[in-house]
Sequence to fold (633 residues):
Amino acid sequence: MKNKGLQTWLFSSLGVAAMFAILVIINALASNVKTRVDLTEERAYTLSPGTRAILSKLDTPVQIRFYCSRGDTRMPVFLKTYAQRVEDLLSEYRQASKGQIEIQKLDPVPDSDAEDSARLDGIEGQARVDGEPFYLGVSVSMLDQKQTIPFLAPDRERMLEYDLSRAVSRVVSVQKPVVGIMSPLPYGGQPVNPAMIRAGQRNGQQPWVLISELKRDFTVKDIPMSAEEIPADIKVLVLLHPKAITETTQYAIDQFVLRGGKLVAFLDPLGLLDPGSANNQMGLNLGSSSSIDKLLTAWGLTFSSSKVVADLDFVGRTREGRQPAILALNEKAMNRDDIVATGGNNLVLAFAGVFSGTPAEGLKQTVLIHSSKNSQLVQPMSAQFEGENIIRQFAASNTEQTLALRLTGKFKTAFPDGKPKATTPAPEPGKEPAPAVATSLKESKEEGAVVLIGDSDFLQDPVAVQEVMNPFGGQRTVMPVNGNLAFAQSAIEQLAGDNNLIAVRSRASRERQFTVVKQMQAKAESAYQAKIKSLESSLSEAQAKLNQLQQAKAEKGGQQLILSPEQQQEIANFRVKEREVKLQLKEERKKLRIGIDSLENGVKWLNIALMPTIVAAVGLGLAVLRHNRRAAR
Fold:
């Protein structure tokens, strides 16, 4: 027995030692073989192809300084958790860059060198409840170029990868991209007229806030609507409400896109804020329409330049009341997987048009903004003056209408026969005529990109910003009232940067949506709407019946202020029906609450009880198996 016990001890000790040695050897070998597997549904830990392409082109080290108040015990917990996710993403950048990205982690405690460095880099300290600052920002630099993200806000987590990749791309580029603006609208403002001031009349107009913001990041050039060629230094052409655009100018845009230029076109079926509209009749602004039909046809698309979209799920409001053709869009209308749509939220589109069709061969379409299925196309005149009537007679198309999209791929010319033969206007005095283009491009050699939006009014100051005048200094201050300008800037910025930025996707947020609950709520709300419509229909029928009875009584010479027995019975019938519908609504709400509570309890039981039950069952199974083996011996 002693020998057997000693033998068992020796074998056990040797077995443990052997197992330890095997684990050490396996870990040593595995440490030299790095394989990463992302098992998350939304690929949250995988860099986009666009980011990898940007990092692969780096030939000079780029330094990223990550400022985070790690030692601050009073830093909010959710920010600490978010900071860890940022740090994980930066590690992905360093690994994908093959040594060209250098990460420096700094903790800017008060009165430290790290805090001085944060201030020099433009990193903003955020105030805690007690007034002390905490830091969470990034500075990206290469040689003498620097880009800073002053504060990494958790609500921009979906755009975190894009913001970092854009910063890396900008420090690599030395010059500001050139953005061209082509529009008949007075986007640049109007100069002050001294004669008007002497007459006591207000005059002059500031440039659009959008234009002022673009000038901060880009070199902005004005391109006339009569242009027959787009300058070669233009990287992105912004087309604002191109009403009455000629085929010659469309040809210039066509050739610009084919040689690699990017286009952002804001079209409009009803440009109400067009001050030069020829449709201002009898004090009524009937607006103007715009399109680039020749180019759209070549790209396989059409634009509803004669109709606007109305949507009951995104009904806006004006002073006159509800206006279904003014769309108050939220995240449900956005493509949350795309950076451009993620950059803008709470958009307000006024009398927008929609795009339809199938992209031409070689082109890929990405919908950025869409209506709900509870939408329809209406005449611009009706949309402008008959909002409540549209709601009453609404007939949903059951189709999500495309309000904004992006086309990518290799474009083919819309002018296979070359430049349109049109009469060229005489050059201005002192200017030589533009040189003729020797040959016309038929197809782009590299992939290009075009962004199309079905509204232009939403960019103008009356819709996008609120102006506040300082009563003391008279300084003009503007504040965004929606996400309109953010969306437009995001679209232009994406195309003006590195071409690979287009392929940088919107990263997944860690906030998982309760889609089943939302579907239950939507189903119940749909049932409510049906019940409400039924009640309103019954009310209208009862009211019409009462009017008929009242009119018949008046024709017979009866007293109109006294209800007849027929009227009293009709009212009683309606009250009974109204009571029944309200009871049904109450039952629907009760069913909804029961369903949500049942789902919530089920989720709780899954999280709390299921996994411990599985672990306990596995443990019991192993115990029974071991007991049976011992009994068999």
